[in-house]
């Protein structure tokens, strides 16, 4: 079942009334679609805010930091992903800097996998391989330590948002260059208007909520 969930629900009111003015800033109404009727999805979508014109004019920025202020909703997101991947024989969770570093490690620990950070340039001290890519608001590069992933290891890639799919494509290329087998990519939020799934072709991408704005 596809459930339409409005982010103007009760739990968003909690965010709107938060004592920190920064957290109350520019909360926009978002319509999101959950992939099934799991009540945890409603809490997750209600706790994510959209900040207009960040980091550039015209960008509707999906901000997961407000989800982190709601431990129950945050845990719900982690639990859904752990349940999905715990019996898939995954030995590597690769998290994309920066927001994949928030969601990747608890999933890796829960499913007994190692965590591999995919970092922005000049952050990793050892030998690295690199992939450049285009974003909705610029271009960037991801790097991974040589030796972090072994040939044939089954990998789950984690990030917060998939928009154009450029970041996930770069991550998949890095992992496949060293012989990793990317089982799936998982993100909390999908922005379907950027058609990231088209760019990702046959690679499966799982998103908890799809934002229609
Ligand atoms: O599907 P795409 O069009 O590639 O966009 C998605 C990426 O954009 C954001 O990261 P950002 O590059 O803003 O980096 P940050 O997390 O370091 O701020 C987001 O966290 C994803 O990694
Ligand atoms: N609109 C958006 N919000 C948050 N992260 C993003 N990454 C690319 N586009 C984004």
Give the amount of beta strand, in percent.
25-35%
Return residue spans where pLDDT drops below 50 for at least 5 consecutive residues. 1-35
Give the averaged pLDDT, no decimals.
Answer: 85
Shape: globular
Strand runs, count? 11
Number of alpha- plus pi-helical segments: 7
Tell me the count of domains. Answer: 1
Tell me about the largest β-sheet: 7 strands, mixed
CATH architecture: 3-Layer(aba) Sandwich
- The CATH class: Alpha Beta
Ligands and ions found? 1-O-pyrophosphono-5-O-phosphono-alpha-D-ribofuranose, adenine
| Strand line-up in the sheet with most strands | 1-2-11-10-9-5-6
Determine Rg (CA atoms, Å).
17 Å
* CA distance, first residue to last residue: 21 Å
EC number: 2.4.2.7
Subunit structure: Homodimer.
Domain Phosphoribosyltransferase: 65-209
Organism: Zostera marina (Eelgrass)
How would you characterize the overall build of this protein?
The protein is an alpha/beta fold and 213 residues long. It has a single domain, classed as Rossmann fold. It is 30% helix and 32% strand. It is built from seven helices and eleven strands. The strands form three sheets. A seven-stranded mixed beta sheet has the order 1-2-11-10-9-5-6, sandwiched between helices. Helix 3 (39-47) packs across helix 4 (71-85) and helix 4 packs across helix 5 (100-111). It is globular. The two termini are 21 Å apart. Bound molecules: 1-O-pyrophosphono-5-O-phosphono-alpha-D-ribofuranose and adenine (ADE).
């Amino acid at each position: 079942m596809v459930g339409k969930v409005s982010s103007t629900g009760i739990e968003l009111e909690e965010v709107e009334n938060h004592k920190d003015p920064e957290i109350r800033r520019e909360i926009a109404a978002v319509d999101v679609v959950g992939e099934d009727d799991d009540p945890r999805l409603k809490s997750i979508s209600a706790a994510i805010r959209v900040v207009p014109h960040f980091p550039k004019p015209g960008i509707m920025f999906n901000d997961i930091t407000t989800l982190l202020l709601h431990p129950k909703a945050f845990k719900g997101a982690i639990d859904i992903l752990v349940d999905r991947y715990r019996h898939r024989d995954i030995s590597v969770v690769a998290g994309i800097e920066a927001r994949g570093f928030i969601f990747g490690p608890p999933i890796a620990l829960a499913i007994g996998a190692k965590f591999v950070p995919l970092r922005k340039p000049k952050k990793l001290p050892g030998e690295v391989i690199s992939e450049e890519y285009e974003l909705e608001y610029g271009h960037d590069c991801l790097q991974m330590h040589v030796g972090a992933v072994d040939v044939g290891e089954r990998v789950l890639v984690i990030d917060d948002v998939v928009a154009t799919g450029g970041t996930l494509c770069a991550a998949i290329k890095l992992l496949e260059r060293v012989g990793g087998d990317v089982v799936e990519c998982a993100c909390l939020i999908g922005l379907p208007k950027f058609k990231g799934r088209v760019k990702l072709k046959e690679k499966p991408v799982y998103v908890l909520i799809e934002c229609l704005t």
